[in-house]
Design goal:
Helix content is about 15%, strand content about 55%. The chain contains two helices and eight strands. Strands 1-2-3-4-8 form a five-stranded mixed sheet. It has a three-stranded antiparallel sheet with strand order 5-6-7, with no helix packed on it. It is elongated, with a radius of gyration of 18 Å.
Length: about 140
């Protein structure tokens, strides 16, 4: 069964696909987190998919979200520190491919990560194809 195969394959990743009450699979993990003084920034990745066995389709949604909270007196690239962020991607229909990297220094603390976020989508797409399912990326999580 495709659902079981995806759960099994995700065991080698930073998180595992978990079955939800509505039958969908969800994959979430924290890519990076930086806590400095009175502020905190977190970068999270989430993938959510639905397998329709009757129509042999997989609908897939993913997002990469950076959140921050706390007190700040400016951008991290100015007076408090310096850094850079590199994001490379290409767009093909509704899918973005690429990775994101950041290295910055804020108040003397390093914040570094590198994450190829298209790897998870490609794994799901490959397994769907191998199982005879069509794969569809959606732009809104409600459409899975």
């Amino acid at each position: 069964m495709l659902k079981d195969r995806l759960i099994e394959l995700s065991s080698g990743l930073p998180a595992r696909f978990e079955e939800q009450r509505d039958g969908t699979l969800k994959f979430e993990f924290k890519v990076a987190e930086r806590k400095v003084f009175l502020s905190k920034k977190t970068l999270n990745y989430k993938a959510h998919l639905r397998i329709d066995d009757n129509n042999k389709t997989v609908r897939f949604f993913e997002t990469l979200k950076e959140t921050g909270l706390g007190i700040s007196s400016g951008d991290s690239d100015t007076a408090q520190g310096l850094g850079f962020k590199v994001e490379t991607y290409k767009v093909s229909g509704k899918e973005r491919e690429g990775n994101i990297e950041e290295l910055s220094k804020l108040f003397g603390k390093d914040y570094k990560y590198s994450f190829d976020w298209s790897r998870i989508r490609e794994m799901v797409k490959r397994e769907a194809d191998n199982s005879g399912y069509s794969f569809q990326a959606v732009l809104n999580e409600k459409h899975i």
